[in-house]
Automatic annotation (TrEMBL):
Residue intervals of the H15 domain: 1-63
Region (Disordered) residue spans: 70-103
Annotated Basic residues bias: 82-96
GO MF assignments: DNA binding
Name assigned to this protein: H15 domain-containing protein
Matches recorded under SMART domains: H15
GO terms for cellular component: nucleosome
Organism: Mucochytrium quahogii
């Protein structure tokens, strides 16, 4: 699981109306000190991508990120099915009659 996915999961589960702090996210994921820079980088990227919003040092999920992507509806209306024309069986040509060879 990527750090971005972990961060999104933590923020979604926290369900805080004002968002969660960087400290809270790091503590919830529970990585050691050497890995915490990846969490900060993931948060920065998620803010740039528009999945999170940063307000006064706290991070919140954007409403657009919460809503599932809408599926495009298929074009409605009358659609004609293309039917393949059946080919009539080819007629066999009658073999040419051989004439008797003259002796």
């Amino acid at each position: 699981m990527s750090y971005a996915a972990k961060v999104l999961k933590v923020i979604k589960e926290a369900d805080e109306p004002k968002g969660v702090s960087l400290h809270f996210v790091k503590a919830a994921i529970g990585e050691d000190e050497s890995k915490k820079r990846f969490i900060a980088a993931a948060l920065k990227k998620l803010v740039e991508d528009g999945k999170l919003s940063q307000v006064k040092g706290s991070f919140k999920l954007r409403k657009a990120a919460l809503a599932p992507a809408k599926k495009k509806k298929a074009a409605s209306g009358t659609t004609k099915k293309v039917t393949a024309k059946k080919k009539s069986p080819a007629k066999k040509k009658a073999p040419a009659k051989k004439t008797a060879a003259a002796k």
